[in-house]
Task: inverse folding
């Protein structure tokens, strides 16, 4: 039975079905309380977790998102059931941390990761289109480095306990979310007050956790990856993974139509800005960082469930990067309608400099970590 399931999930039908399920569940989460056009955003949700833990004090985005916990634990369950849990570590961890931090800085410049870019487009947000082009450009740059010998080295088999660390961290995070302990007066765990920002908008935690578990399980089986789908097309002309991403987009669009959540437009979209240049460049940075690290933010979470602690270092880099982004004013600000007048959002000068610096650093990493080709 397990062999038949493995073959199914490895097939095109399997990846298309899983993509369709993710698209439907993401739009359903929006209907049940998640922010508009943010049914699932791995970067945004990790940013909210960083805020809940006090790594930044942006009151609008503070909440322990159970979907992230579910992604890891769902992947863990799948890896254990199908005997694919393999503790491994040691492949340039500090570089992965830096890539994770800059991936988050780029994502928050755009106000979303590749997952949210697709959900934004499925909800009618046309600013996602140029951003997705920027993402593809970033991945294309990463593919150039891959073709020229870029390699972070192989992870080494290690103690099983090492592979369990990140899933256990997620269990601890879940306990914090449920119990909501008070450690010090005025201290964490922080939660965005109602009406104060997207952090206050969320489905019931049990539903969010359940959706995360389902997606984590299915994505682990199919190797679902938004970055990998584009990389495979550019690198090998392989459309297997991107067929799943296409199914996500179509199903999310149809679900949004059914729920009345499709509102096409370019300006004043929910938690989005229409500053074209920095939408594109932010996603160029993110796409390049994901390509150099070997997976999109969702895929990195799924890998931690399989025992990959290098992926865990990348995730921690993203969470710390979220703290830096908000503490130092690097994150984008959304468009606003003030008395009927559009105020276009975008980046501060510090945010612009951080995006450019991130692109430069990623290019230097790509050049400096190349094996000599025979």
Result:
């Amino acid at each position: 039975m397990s062999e038949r399931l493995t073959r199914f999930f490895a097939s095109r039908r399997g990846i298309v079905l899983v993509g369709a399920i993710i698209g439907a569940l993401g739009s359903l989460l929006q209907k049940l309380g998640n922010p508009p056009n943010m049914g699932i955003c791995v970067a945004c949700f990790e940013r909210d977790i960083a805020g809940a833990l006090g790594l930044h004090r942006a009151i609008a985005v503070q909440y322990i998102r159970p979907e992230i916990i579910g992604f890891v634990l769902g992947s863990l369950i799948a890896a254990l059931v199908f005997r694919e849990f393999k503790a491994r570590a040691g492949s340039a961890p500090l570089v992965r941390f830096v890539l994770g931090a800059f991936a988050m800085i780029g994502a928050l410049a755009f106000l979303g990761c590749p997952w949210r870019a697709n959900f934004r487009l499925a909800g009618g947000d046309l600013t996602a289109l140029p951003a997705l082009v920027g993402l593809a450009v970033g991945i294309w740059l990463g593919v150039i480095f891959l073709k020229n010998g870029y390699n972070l080295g192989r992870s080494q088999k290690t103690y099983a306990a090492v592979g369990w660390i990140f899933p256990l961290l997620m269990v601890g995070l879940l306990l914090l979310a449920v119990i909501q302990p008070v450690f010090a007066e005025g201290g964490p765990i922080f939660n965005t007050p109602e009406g104060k920002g997207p952090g206050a908008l969320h489905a019931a935690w049990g539903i969010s956790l359940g959706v995360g578990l389902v997606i984590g399980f299915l994505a682990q089986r199919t190797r679902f990856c938004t970055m990998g789908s584009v990389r495979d097309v550019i690198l090998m002309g392989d459309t297997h993974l991107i067929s799943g991403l296409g199914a996500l987009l179509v199903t999310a669009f149809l679900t949004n139509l059914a729920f009345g959540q499709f509102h096409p437009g370019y300006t004043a979209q929910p938690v989005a800005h229409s500053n074209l240049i920095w939408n594109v460049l932010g996603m160029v940075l993110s796409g390049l960082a994901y390509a150099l690290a070997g997976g999109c933010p969702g895929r990195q979470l799924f890998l931690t469930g399989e025992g990959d602690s290098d992926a865990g270092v990348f995730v921690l880099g993203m969470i710390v990067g979220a703290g830096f982004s908000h503490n130092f004013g690097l994150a984008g600000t959304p468009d606003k309608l003030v008395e009927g007048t559009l105020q276009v959002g975008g980046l501060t000068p510090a945010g612009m400099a951080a995006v450019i610096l991130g692109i430069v650093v990623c290019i230097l990493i790509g050049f400096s970590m190349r094996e000599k080709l025979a």
